[in-house]
Structure formats: C-alpha cells, structure tokens
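Hey, can you fold this one?
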Amino acid sequence: QVQLVESGGGLVQPGGSLRLSCTASGSIFSSVDVGWYRQAPGGQREVVAAISGGGSANYVDSVKGRFTISRDNAKNMVYLQMNSLKPEDTAVYSCNTPHNVMLGHWGRGTQVTVSS
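Sure. Predicted structure:
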C-alpha cells in the first residue's frame, strides 16, 4: 500500500502561485496513478488533477491552463504547480491513489487559502 504526505500549502494572494508536494512511500509507487484532490469548506471533495505512472496528466476544467501536475518517480514525489490562483481555489488539498480512495484512506492534506 502506498502512503502519501502532502505539503506546501499556505496563504497566497489572488493571482499568486503555490507548489504542492506529495511524498510517497512504497516500492510500487512508479506504477501507480496519483491524483490531487481538494475539498472546500462545506463542499464535496473533487479531483483536480491526476497523473498516471507513465506521466499522462488530466485536469478538471476549472484548473486547466493554471495547474500542472508532475511526478518524479526516482524521488517518490508528485507535485502540483498552481498558478493564477483564485479565491475559489481555497480548499484542503490532498494527494491519493485510486486504491486508497476506494478504501477511504486519506492523509491530513494541506490547506491552500487564496485571499487578499
């Protein structure tokens, strides 16, 4: 089972940027799809970006052109570069694998707040 820990959140002004990091443990990490999810206060958790083991990426429409997901399998890391941030991007961001999502296993996430 792959375990993941998120970091890199914080407070940023509208239009600013943040880079989130996801540190993974587990020898099979390089073959595992990973997604970045977010949950705003009072809202449902949604997947915003996902990357396959081979590096193919997909994004929800609301972040296309602003967010970039990437991975470094040698370091067991997945990143989410977030540019042109908007107040509506404010949420707790989590990274996870499909298997963990199915089991309901989530980490603590990292808070992103976009506000002036």
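The chain has a mean pLDDT of 94. Let me know if you want another pass with a different chain boundary.
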